[in-house]
Amino acid sequence: MVPEHAITLHINETPHELTVDVRTTLLDLLREELGLTGTKKGCDHGLCGACTVAVDGERVVSCLTLAVSIDGSAVTTVEGLSAGDDLDPVQQAFLDHDGFQCGYCTSGQVSSAHALLREHARGDLSVVSFEGDSRAALDGCTVLNEDEIRERMAGNICRCGAYANIVDAIVAAAERTSR
């Protein structure tokens, strides 16, 4: 008999009471049980970032996150970023700057970029933050330049190589959200 567990998740602001096999990943729950197929299964080993979502505002790779481990949490997928037909600034920037080619990694890239902007706004530092002016890093006042973006997006792989456009999209989204 497969062990199951009752959980409650708030997915894209909608509460869900579910009974899941304790081995079910968040990715499989989203795609197979709830039909939220925007989140993609790439490598299924946590290496490519295609399955990136936010759990309680922090980005995670959903293929390595057991659904039972986040009972009571708020999950935001790429489908939950927009408000109806109004795209999130990150989504709009990806369209405006052609931040995708085949599009397979795009949902993970967008979700990760969305989290990156939140992390930077609250002063979280990256390795690149300490290169150059270490005083600015200690003050948490790093500039979100291309190197900083590339470092923070390092866990998201684009097999088409659209990295330059992805960086441009994130720069534009950062400018749009900082107004």
Automatic annotation (TrEMBL):
Pathway: Alkaloid degradation; nicotine degradation
Species for this entry: Mycolicibacterium sphagni
Domain of life of the source: Bacteria
Coiled coil start-end: none
Record's protein name: (2Fe-2S)-binding protein
SUPFAM superfamilies, sorted: 2Fe-2S ferredoxin-like (SSF54292), CO dehydrogenase ISP C-domain like (SSF47741)
Domain 2Fe-2S ferredoxin-type: 5-81
Entry-linked Pfam families: Fer2, Fer2_2
InterPro entries: 2Fe-2S-bd (IPR002888), 2Fe-2S-bd_dom_sf (IPR036884), 2Fe-2S_ferredoxin-like_sf (IPR036010), 2Fe-2S_ferredoxin-type (IPR001041), 2Fe2S_fd_BS (IPR006058), Aldehyde_Oxdr_Iron-Sulfur (IPR052914), Beta-grasp_dom_sf (IPR012675)
CDD domains: fer2 (cd00207)
Keywords: 2Fe-2S, Iron, Iron-sulfur, Metal-binding, Oxidoreductase
A GO term for molecular function: metal ion binding
